Every structure is written in C-alpha cells, then in structure tokens.
C-alpha cells in the first residue's frame, strides 16, 4: 500500500465527519472545531483540567486525544 492511499482514506473519513451538539443538532465541522478550541483555551487560561477516559481501545484513543488537545493549548 502506498502512503497516498492511506492519505486518501483519511481524507475521505474526515470529509464524512458528522458533529452534533448535546441536543443532537448537526453542527458544521469547522464551527464545532472552533467551539472545542475555545473550550480548550478557556480551560488552559483558567488552569483547569480536561479528563479523557476509555476502556480497552478507548483508553488508547483517550490518551491520543489528550495528547492532541495538549498541543492546542
């Protein structure tokens, strides 16, 4: 497999991303990312903490997500 094949698959998956709010209303992915970025900035500025938890594969995903979020702050 070529790396460009993996890149195409990732691009396809991200293009199909669906984001909803707490009420189940669909949000534009860019708008949702801006909301998330604001929450992370606010948390960092107020010396708050974010916790991500998971079990099994979810624990790996939680750890990876926490590392990604740490890069944003």
Strand tally is 2
- Give the N-terminus to C-terminus distance in angstroms: 35 Å
Task: Tell the overall outline.
Answer: globular
Strand content: 5-15%
Largest sheet: 2 strands, antiparallel
Low-confidence stretches: none
Helix content: 55-70%
Structure explained in plain terms:
By secondary structure, this protein is mainly alpha-helical. The chain has one domain (18-72). Helices cover 63% and strands 5% of the residues. The chain contains three helices and two strands. A two-stranded antiparallel sheet has the order 1-2. A hairpin with a 5-residue loop joins strand 1 and strand 2. The longest helix is centred in the middle third of the chain and has 17 residues, at 29-45. The chain is globular. The N and C termini lie far apart (35 Å). The model has no long low-confidence stretch (mean pLDDT 90).
Could you name the key traits of this structure?
73 residues; globular; two-stranded antiparallel ribbon; 3 helices
Tell me briefly what this model is.
The protein has helices at 3-15, 29-45, 57-72; strands at residues 19-20, 26-27. The chain is mainly α. It has one domain (18-72).
Layout of helices and strands:
Layout: H1 3-15, E1 19-20, E2 26-27, H2 29-45, H3 57-72
Antiparallel strand pairs: 1-2
């Amino acid at each position: 497999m070529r790396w460009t094949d993996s890149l195409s698959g990732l691009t396809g998956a991200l293009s199909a991303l669906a984001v909803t709010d707490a009420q189940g209303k669909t949000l534009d992915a860019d708008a949702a990312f801006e909301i998330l970025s604001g929450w992370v900035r606010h948390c960092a500025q107020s010396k708050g903490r974010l916790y991500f938890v998971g079990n099994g594969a979810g624990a790996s995903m939680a750890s990876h997500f926490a590392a990604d979020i740490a890069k944003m702050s």
